[in-house]
Request: fold
Amino acid sequence: MSQFKLLIDRLTDRPQRFDYEAPPEWWTHRAGEDDRPGEGEIDRPFRFELTARRLGEDVLVEGSLEGGLSAECSRCTRRYAHALRDTFRLVLEPYGEDLRGSARAHDSIDPEGDRALAVNGMCLGDDLEAGWFRGPVIFLDDFFAEVVATAMPIQPLCDEECPGLCPHCGMERGMGRASGAESGRRDGQATEQTAAVCRCTDERVESPFAVLANWKGKSESESNAGKASGKTGGRTASGAGSRKRS
Reply:
């Protein structure tokens, strides 16, 4: 049985506050171990704070998400604590033959939406800002899961200024720390192993066309030198002929 339920028939036009908390296992169970391998490990519960009220026949839900996970930086591969924060706003229209919006709902809801209505009492539209509800109670599990998935980082960064790894020595540039793959763990906490500071002075990766460019430059230099030598020899021969005629 879902713990994230909202009793529609108890809502009025005045905002009412609701607080929900989901343990890390809730997301692990819903997402699966292999569905989102780059997200890292959830290290604290998700907290959803929201207000709900009636807008005529519709229901307005507004709120925020807070959570956290241990993620791997996409630049330096070091693990770090990533805070999850997001806000959401959802307007639900009633779904029924005798209620406003039902014609549009019938055209928009697919079989998956029908299943969501039957299980959760609500279904989402094409985005997370609109949907439909049916019955006196709705369950927010699927909606909360979509909010969490949207808040997950696509390219996690331990810091916006993270310089990343040196392509030559593999060390964290300018930091002197081992990469995340070389980090140890003690008592369940990540521990960084010290390593030599990156001392590479030229980190430019040589282009595969660099050899061709050098060869072209060398050929042009030799060609120019040959032309200059030919001109000098011609002038010398011309001067010798002039002296012989005199």
